[in-house]
Amino acid sequence: MTTALILSLVLQSLAYAAPVLLASLGGLFSERVGVVNIGLEGLLLVGALAAVVAATVTGSALLGVLIALLVGGALAALFALFGVVLRRDQVIVGTTLNFLALGLTGMLYRAWSASGSGGGKPLPPLTPIVGDGSTSLNALTLLALLLVPAAHWLLFRTRLGVILRATGEVPEAAAAGGTAVSRLRVLVCLLTGGLCGLGGASLSLGISSAFTEGMTNGRGFIALAVVVFGRWNPFGALAASLLFAAADVAQARLQTVAGVQNWLASLHLGDTYPFFLALPYVLTLVALAIRGSKVRPPAALGQPFEQG
Amino acid sequence: MTQNLRRPTAFFVPSLIVFAALAAGCAQQSGSAGDTAASPAASATASGTGGKTMALKVALITPGKISDKGWSQSAYEGQQRIKAELGAETSPPVESPALSDVASVFQNQAQEGNTLIFAHGSEFDAAAKTVAASVPQTTMVVMGGRAIAPNLMPIQFASGQATYLAGVVAGGMTRTNKIGLVGVQKIPIIVAAFSAFEQGVKSTNSEATVTTTYVGSEDIAKAKQQTQALLDSGVDVVMHNANEGGKGVADAVMAKDGAMFIGANSDQSDLATPKNLGSFILDVPSAMLAVAKEVQGGKRGGAPYMAGVKDKAVFFKYNTKFAGTISDSLRAKVTEVETALASGTLDPSK
Q: What pTM, to 2 d.p., does this model score?
């Protein structure tokens, strides 16, 4: 393996991990304060659309990213209203959010495309900081990576981190200590939305340079699994999302190697492509199976809290 | 206190769900608002086939979104063309239904008075075959299907003729002698198209190799990733058959020096220009219009409608904005192959 190939594999894995990583960091913060947000997929999708529309209209990729962050936060406010303030079942609210986002983005994207306001104007690309093609690194990927140690520091090295974790473990104790539990949870929901908005932007502006309906294709749900697999730890989330992305990058490369194709064909297992396409999922299952069982989720996860 | 807080909000979550469902429904139909405007008078006079004509009301089921700039969108354009040229009524298209629901979608469309239903993909063949006998008043047409019944006929595109032409172009243009294919799923219609492409490549360039890959979904990010893998392995011409994923393929080609792109199924000159050589085209609207005329003239089924180069329903369309040069000798070769395909002396499906 040449250095160029290794570099390309690493950078490509990082780029394709970024949307999932950003969403999983959002999900991680939510769950740490005791909120289950199934709606990560919808938040990602809304962020992806907002980024493309805003970047095209303003002609600035940076503004596209910022507006994706705000729109993600705004949709998450809806989740916070029903799931935290009004204490509805968070799983149902999150599921509803996903349907809402899928329908709404489809409707708005078509209306926008049909109106011609996006037509003609080119989408400003999110220019890579270094490199090009498969060996490039853009600002959102870098931001996602930098957020990992920052999130870890915040959660485990600061007073605010203790309060956040206490809110997810024993909200009564946090409340007794003077924390406005619901207000804190609402704020964290907004943070989750903002992170997912960034994740969506990293998918539509950072990777694809386009929006298509349903383009998140389950990445929000993978991010939910990444939170659990990463043991509610930012570095764990990084490892899990990288593993999945790297396996996917690897299978795409293996498909182009004639030797691998011929070897698989020689085994007479029938069609060879499902083996490639299943690889990331199989690896993730294996990793989940061999991980320790000592870890448990935050104790008050998904439980509504009423300040006494 | 708890009860007081909860009671006035009890309907909020259900109403949010309803709103979400409405939004989803609007997305399904927004592209086709106003389609149901009836013009029965026109349909009675529009048929040129003579004899008894029947009023058409045309329904459509697509496997993907009608905004995909590819396969599903072309079917929607076909429906619109039948409306415009034959004065037919239309029903809003049903987009990407679950395969388990397709049979009941057919039943509903027949009950709503549709006389002609286009199902835009071979995956709908089994359901159409099951339903056909129970909706005798309705003619069902499955794109790329095989099943035949008195009121069921497939449109079979000789897509291999179009991809063969694309292969001739790719084989003539490659500098690295490595050509890549990105497919969405390994299904017979795509396998056949790719096989004909490879024959076309070999006919102009016996040294070139073709690497075939599949994405497994229409995910544009994954299609881009797969294309990057191909380009990094030395491939310089990439043709796709990945529907929405084609945008990701184009994006990867744009970022790679010396790479070239071939579009799929419809004119995709807006993708990857100026690195776009052209697109192989299955002219779905032309084929659907031809079938609608036949149905209006009284044909109900029984035999497939074959659409090929001879009908101008499949061809290779050059991209006029390609930055490089496609030599006159290569263009002449393409024309020569076209003639052979039209006359039947060359048949890539054999």
A: 0.80
